[in-house]
């Protein structure tokens, strides 16, 4: 694009992302090189000198030369209040979009359309007036775009399209971590139950059960992170089914990628899942399970954040119990659920010391033995069997099984693997029973699906841990960062789907119909997807191969990775490490990956833990033992099948 002197432009800025500027002069270069542009930044109406070097604006004392490819046009006549639909913008590029959103945000307008897409800027504040009954009535049945942008408008348009076209609809809620996806999803579901609900006062109605499923899943699947006090640590797809009259007739919840590692490992300023803190604050129930303040449990005291501002865990515990009542979980099953939660906390306090024999382990002290006994009673297994499961491993050989003692560090790994497995199965059971209680309508006319997916995150390290197979690699080990890598990969797939339908297919249709339009540039992320998933040479394929080979190490995996993919533009190798690598995702910021250790041979710990739990099938029904905690009843049991 050719800029004349005096043209209003945007230039990249290290602090502001983009800054307003004015062209002073342009200088064409040889055909193979981009033109250079001399610009000055504008601040509060005064000219401020700046330079643009490799696309980054740097402060200096005079106008300087900029790379012409890094300068974008600026609309001088843009509405100072912003536009409610960004398809009205003269220049639909990054600085134009950000400037428009910022202008609307300063006026407390958090919603903006881009065609049929709603962009929400999280205000990090309660705005009850935006979501009350009056507001839902306002948007009910109104043509899309007639009123100000709102999440209710998206939900209403989806509902009316389903009813009018007799066709199922889907709503995708996406964004980075802390963007407000979970709250937006709840608002959408609330509106759909409003327009599709029946006039009934029954608290056990389908509509009410659908709504109460949210706080229940939040108690067991949400946690505080550095960005969000109530961050969903799992993906969720809610299908709300409707009958011929457009009334809700059933629903189903599907969950994905629960962050299992959070059960045993949390970072500073974060918390474990809410249910642990709720149970510790429950009073008599906490006393019944020999629980105390969260600071007394290893799975909770890795962070010094035990409470949430403005939130009472004791009150939230009562709300969770009420949600269980409405969803249809009986009292006996509720007791069993929290018994398992308590068992996990006691399990985390079991510590080991070196045993008498070489590479063996034993219970550290009497305090740990108390927690062992409590965990065994709560899990309804024999304490000696639990101890042997943690301190010994069964190794399969052609001649038969060999029982081998493990050192104390391996015993801790087995303990954590057991805790994660039990919690994950408990969460799955909870979801299954919510679905059974609400019920699905197999004769439903149509449905609306709402997808609340994980937000993209990039930590200091996205760590990879290895096992004997890719499945065990995913299931058994404390893979904090690999889980996030999977989540980021899922977001990349969603971004590709978005690109395909919003950019690729739409512009191909314009080209076919010979419509005159300006081609919209967008970042195609197919290359990062190929880097991760392509067969036979991709990160996942190479990782799976390394896991199968018994003598593989993280050094040999990294070597093979760089041998096959060293020229890939999205893969970077840090200079001072032989095994680290970094991926540059769609979001643009490179996410480093660091292999901390590689476990050789076959990982058999899950098999041993599963054998232990199958002794009672992890029955969750009450019969009191000598310690005052429930034991299993074979003829009436709630099982976590492993």
From TrEMBL:
SMART domains per the UniProt record, alphabetical: MYSc
PROSITE patterns, per database record: MYOSIN_MOTOR (PS51456)
Keywords: Actin-binding, ATP-binding, Motor protein, Myosin, Nucleotide-binding
Listed GO MF terms: actin filament binding; ATP binding; microfilament motor activity
Domain Myosin motor: 81-642
Residues binding ATP, per UniProt: 175-182
Keyword Nucleotide-binding: yes
InterPro entries registered for this protein in UniProt: Kinesin_motor_dom_sf (IPR036961), Myosin_head_motor_dom-like (IPR001609), P-loop_NTPase (IPR027417)
Gene Ontology biological process: actin filament organization; actin filament-based movement
Family classification: Belongs to the TRAFAC class myosin-kinesin ATPase superfamily. Myosin family.
PANTHER family associated with the record: MYOSIN, OS10G0395150 PROTEIN
Protein's name in the database: Myosin motor domain-containing protein
Recorded name of the encoding gene: gb07895
């Amino acid at each position: 694009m050719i800029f004349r002197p005096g043209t209003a432009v945007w230039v990249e800025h290290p602090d502001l992302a983009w800054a307003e500027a004015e062209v002073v002069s342009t200088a064409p270069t040889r055909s193979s090189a981009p033109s250079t542009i001399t610009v000055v930044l504008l601040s509060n109406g005064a000219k401020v000198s700046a330079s643009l070097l490799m696309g980054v604006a740097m402060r200096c004392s005079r106008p300087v030369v900029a790379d012409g490819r890094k300068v974008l046009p600026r609309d001088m006549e843009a509405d100072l209040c912003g536009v409610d639909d960004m398809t009205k913008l003269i220049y639909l590029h990054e600085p134009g979009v950000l400037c428009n959103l910022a202008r609307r945000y300063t006026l407390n307008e958090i919603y903006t359309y881009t065609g049929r897409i709603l962009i929400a800027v999280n205000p990090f504040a309660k705005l009850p007036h935006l979501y009350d009954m009056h507001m839902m009535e306002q948007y009910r049945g109104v043509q899309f775009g007639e009123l100000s942008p709102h999440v209710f408008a998206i939900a209403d348009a989806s509902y009316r399209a389903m009813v009018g076209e007799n066709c199922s609809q889907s709503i995708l809620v996406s964004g980075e971590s802390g963007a407000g996806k979970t709250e937006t999803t709840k608002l959408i579901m609330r509106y759909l139950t409003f327009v599709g609900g029946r006039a009934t006062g029954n608290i056990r109605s389908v509509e009410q059960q659908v709504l109460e499923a949210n706080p229940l899943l939040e108690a067991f699947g949400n946690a505080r992170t550095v960005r969000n006090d109530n961050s969903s640590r799992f993906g969720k797809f809610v299908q709300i089914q409707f009958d011929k009259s457009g009334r809700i007739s059933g629903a189903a919840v599907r969950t994905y990628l629960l962050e299992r590692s959070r059960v045993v490992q949390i970072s500073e300023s974060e918390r474990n899942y809410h249910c642990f803190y709720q149970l510790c604050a429950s009073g008599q129930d906490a006393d019944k399970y020999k629980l105390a303040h969260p600071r007394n449990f290893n799975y909770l005291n890795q962070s010094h954040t035990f409470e949430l501002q403005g939130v009472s865990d004791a009150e939230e515990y009562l709300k969770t119990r009420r949600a269980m009542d409405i969803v249809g979980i009986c009292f006996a099953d509720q007791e069993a659920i929290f018994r398992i939660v308590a068992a996990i906390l006691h399990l985390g306090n079991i510590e080991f010391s070196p045993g008498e024999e070489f590479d063996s382990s034993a219970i550290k002290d009497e305090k740990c033995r108390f927690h062992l006994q409590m965990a065994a009673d709560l899990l309804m297994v024999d304490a000696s069997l639990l101890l042997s499961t943690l301190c010994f491993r069964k190794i399969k050989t052609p001649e038969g099984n060999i029982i081998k003692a493990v050192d104390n560090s391996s015993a801790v790994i087995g303990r954590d693997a057991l805790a994660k497995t039990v919690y994950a199965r408990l969460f799955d059971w909870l979801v299954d029973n919510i679905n059974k209680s609400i019920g699905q309508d197999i004769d439903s006319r149509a449905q609306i699906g709402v997808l609340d997916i994980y937000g993209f995150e990039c930590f200091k390290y996205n760590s990879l841990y290895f096992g004997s197979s890719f499945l065990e690699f995913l299931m058994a080990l404390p893979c904090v960062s690999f889980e996030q890598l999977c989540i980021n990969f899922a977001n990349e797939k969603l971004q590709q789907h978005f690109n395909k339908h919003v950019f690729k297919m739409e512009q191909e249709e314009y080209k076919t119909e010979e419509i005159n339009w300006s081609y919209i540039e967008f970042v195609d992320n197919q290359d990062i997807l190929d880097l991760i998933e392509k067969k036979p040479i991709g990160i996942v394929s190479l990782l799976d191969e390394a896991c199968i080979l018994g003598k593989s190490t993280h050094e040999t995996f990294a070597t093979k990775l760089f041998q096959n993919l060293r020229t890939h533009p999205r893969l970077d190798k840090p200079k001072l490490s032989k095994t680290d690598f970094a991926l540059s995702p769609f979001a643009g910021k490179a996410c480093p990956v660091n292999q901390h250790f590689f476990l050789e041979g076959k990982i058999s710990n899950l098999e041993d833990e599963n054998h232990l739990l199958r002794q009672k099938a992890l029955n969750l029904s009450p019969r009191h033992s000598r310690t005052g905690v429930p034991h299993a009843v074979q003829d009436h049991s709630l099982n976590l099948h492993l």
